[in-house]
Design goal:
The protein has a single domain, classed as Dihydrofolate Reductase, subunit A (3-Layer(aba) Sandwich), CATH 3.40.430.10. Helices cover 30% and strands 29% of the residues. It is built from five helices and ten strands; from the N terminus they run ββαβααββαβαββββ.
Length: 188
């Protein structure tokens, strides 16, 4: 069975964005891009919430074609263009986005059906709303949390509205020169 894998930057106090959606606190660099590339290599499906999909779809399809494209831009653009994209949205229309699978209703049944299909992992970059929805149904199998060395004190929390306890175990950790620590947890 395929796994739902979340790859998310968070603050030390558990926020994924500042109070106004700020993400300028996220440490990025070649070593983190290479590490994230290992996750994309193990996934053939990207799952997004509507807002993150619109943002990603506005940039990644042509990012590799830009004259100043970085190695990361080229690699991620190529990955983005070849993977299946699944979007959780009640308002997007399949006719506007051909080839994109949109899940509007019955989230639990649709995600479980997706997990039973053949293929590699299903990867979520960002998409806090989608993560919250899947987390509330205990549908996430792995969390790759990029803990950034910053405390915001307020903002959009990663862990909210969880109905039942979710037991996880630490599978791996990695410390980057920037001070970011990746904590890889698997659902028990």
């Amino acid at each position: 069975m395929r796994k739902i894998v979340v790859f998310m930057h968070i603050t030390l106090d558990g926020f994924v964005a500042g109070p106004n959606g700020e993400m300028d606190w996220i440490n990025i660099g070649d070593e983190i891009f290479e590490y994230a590339g290992q996750q994309t290599d193990s996934a053939d499906t990207a799952l997004y919430g509507k807002n993150t999909f619109l943002m990603m779809n506005g940039y990644w399809p042509t990012a590799a074609d830009q004259p100043n494209a970085s190695k990361h831009d080229i690699q991620h653009s190529n990955w983005y263009n070849k993977v299946e994209k699944v979007v959780l949205s009640k308002t997007l229309n399949e006719k506007e986005y051909p080839g994109i699978r949109i899940i509007k209703d019955d989230l639990e049944a649709e995600i479980n059906k997706l997990k039973k299909e053949s293929g590699k992992n299903i990867l979520i970059f960002g998409s806090a709303g989608a993560v919250h929805s899947l987390m509330s149904l205990n549908l996430i199998d792995e969390y790759w949390l990029m803990v950034n060395p910053v405390i915001l004190g307020q903002g959009l929390p990663l862990f909210s509205d969880i109905k039942d306890k979710i037991n996880v175990k630490l599978a791996d950790s990695n410390i980057f020169p920037s001070g970011v620590v990746c904590l890889h947890y698997e659902k028990k």
